[in-house]
Amino acid sequence: KEHIKEVQAFQATTKEQLEEFRIKYLGGKGVVKEIFAAFKSVPNEEKKAFGQAINELKNASEEKVKTLQDALESKEDVKGIFGDLTRPGAPFEIGSRHPISLVKNQILDVFSTIGFNVSEGPEIEDDWHNFTALNLPEYHPARDMQDTFFIQTNPDTLLRTHTSSVQVRYMENNTPPIRTISPGRVFRNEAISARSHCIFHQVEGLYIDKDVSFADLKQTLLYFTKEMFGKSKIRLRPSYFPFTEPSAEVDIYWGLKTETDYRITKGTGWLEIMGCGMVDPNVLKNCGINPDEYSGYAFGMGIERIAMLLYQIGDIRMFYENDVRFLEQFKSSL
Length: 334
Ligand code: PHE
Description:
- The chain is an alpha+beta fold and about 325 residues long.
- Helices cover about 40% and strands about 20% of the residues.
- It contains 13 helices and 10 strands.
- A hairpin with a 2-residue loop joins strand 7 and strand 8.
- Bound molecules: phenylalanine.
């Protein structure tokens, strides 16, 4: 009776467990055989009941083996169709954002919190939007500042040398107040080296409204450098751009803590990160904005340069080679 209870309660999750069970009860030296051997020594009047009990145990054991076998086999069938459902999933590779995109998004985020929208324009430009409207008429010597890839001359079609061309388009199509950031790819006919490339990325900013002053520009740039680099010391050095007057280069105080700091700041601790200035009244006029009513500032920076600083990348060419070992290092960044 005890054996019957045990048999009825038995469950198996593997074929091996079931086989063990079968051998235990129905095998050559199994429980059923053992009890059957004892049958001889049972007194005659108990033989009938004893025999029934043995048969009951035998039948119960056989039935159990059969039902569990069927159950395990249908499980195997499921495995055959769907694979092992209990197996851990296969690992899959997720990609990473390119460091240029990471830094670009970071710059756009900083400026969006102070009300700048994002504008984009074509990479193939005409002479007007890349040069003439920006106070760089034909034969102006400052055109040599940016070696240009021409696609066609007369009328000139070229690969834009800066995203200031987007600002021209934006001013032509919108009325002040204007607060816009123009990110994009730009092209210059320069020798490729560790420090410069013929293709790179810029983010330029433009702010036009009534009574915009140089102080507004400086404060905005200070806010930007604090948010972007955690550095709160900047200096503006007088410079020249045809489209801004006055113009300046922006340096941040990077400090001198590591050997790399000495190398990238040439030992002064100061690092140039962008150009800026007050939009030249001629440029406003060219774009249909009245310079007597409005004024504004503009600034522009190279994304590669900023990414190189933030991630301590020593060679600009790494950005374009797309070596997975390089790209993988940015996986943890958002
Ligand atoms: N367009 C300039 C360049 O490409 C950067 C700049 C933008 C400078 C706006 C001043 C104002 O170098």
